[in-house]
Amino acid sequence: MNAEAAMPGGGGAGQDAVAGEIVRFRRVTRRFGARMALLDASCSLGAGVVGLVGPNGAGKTTWLRLAAGLIQPTTGEVRWRGDLPRRHPDLDNRIALCADRDALPPDASAWQLLRDHLRIAGLSAAAAGERAEASLHRLGLQDRMERPLGQLSRGQRQRVKLALTFALPADLYLLDEPQNALDPVWRLEVAALVRAARDAGALVVVSSHILEEVEAIADRLVVLYRSRIVAMGPKDAVRLQLGRAGVALRVEASDVRALGRALIGHPAVLRLEVSEGALRVAGDDLSAIQRGLAAAVLTSGVRVSAVETEGDDLTSVFRALGQEVR
């Protein structure tokens, strides 16, 4: 499935650049030798917060590296801010990547690293030092600024990476699993940084394999599965694109297959699935599903031991995705 233009600021693969577009993928495929990392991906994204979600190995990191211009497509093209190539001078310091991989130099201090980063970006020595200190202070590292990075905890090093990412204003922020190793307090601060960047007119792409992490901060979703973009748009639109039910019941019973057979053909039931000893009954009307289940229990004579409701959250959408493209 090739997902196209289901977002505000989106454009099709064959379309010209649209107003407000910050990054565009046009039929991008990326291979690493014989391994397919991303296949025929097209999307056009404007300002806002986009959750890039999918299971491990789905192609999220490859998408982010392509969006950062660190690697080139095998086929297709990536363009920024209309139709600019990555090395255009108008893009200098306008794309910020927080990579999942920790490659911080162990002997440098956090303050030295940020100051040097800002000096390279063109700030004066005094301005770079002041901004480095302020960025680290916001992320609670004021007492760790002078310590070698190799002596910091994993969570502290993650905050240093985020301080580097948000130290300068950018048009495009790319965050690969940014909440790794962070406690709840600093996860809230990351969300605040993301919202501030969005409010300033930037596009922030937040990658995660944990849907709950992006649910609270993302306006829209790009969903990757098996190296393809399989859905994109607001949460409800994603569910609609996947053609999936909005609600489901998970039923544990003495004979789930007999119960499933009794539910076949019921107009409220859109999908039946037996998994891990339970029956999952999906549809778009919870009350109608419950009535159908009650009738099926009477018809089949099975004993029901537990019923759980699954519903309007991204975890349900992600579970649906796995079934849709399997």
Query: Could you say what the CATH topology of the largest domain is called?
Result: Rossmann fold
Counting H and I runs of at least 4 residues, what is the number of helices? 10
Inertia-based shape:
elongated
CATH classification class of the largest domain: Alpha Beta
> What ranges have pLDDT less than 50 throughout 5 or more consecutive residues?
1-16
N- to C-terminal separation? 12 Å
Radius of gyration: 23 Å
Strand order of the largest sheet: 5-6-7-3-8-9
CATH architecture assignment of the largest domain = 3-Layer(aba) Sandwich
- Binned, the helix content reads 25-40%
Percent range for β-strand residues: 25-35%
Helix-strand makeup class: alpha/beta
Q: How would you sum up the major sheet?
A: 6 strands, mixed
| Overall pLDDT score | 87
What is the domain tally?
2
CATH superfamily of the largest domain: P-loop containing nucleotide triphosphate hydrolases
Number of strands: 13
* SSE arrangement, N to C: EEEHEEHHHEHEHEEHEHEEHEH
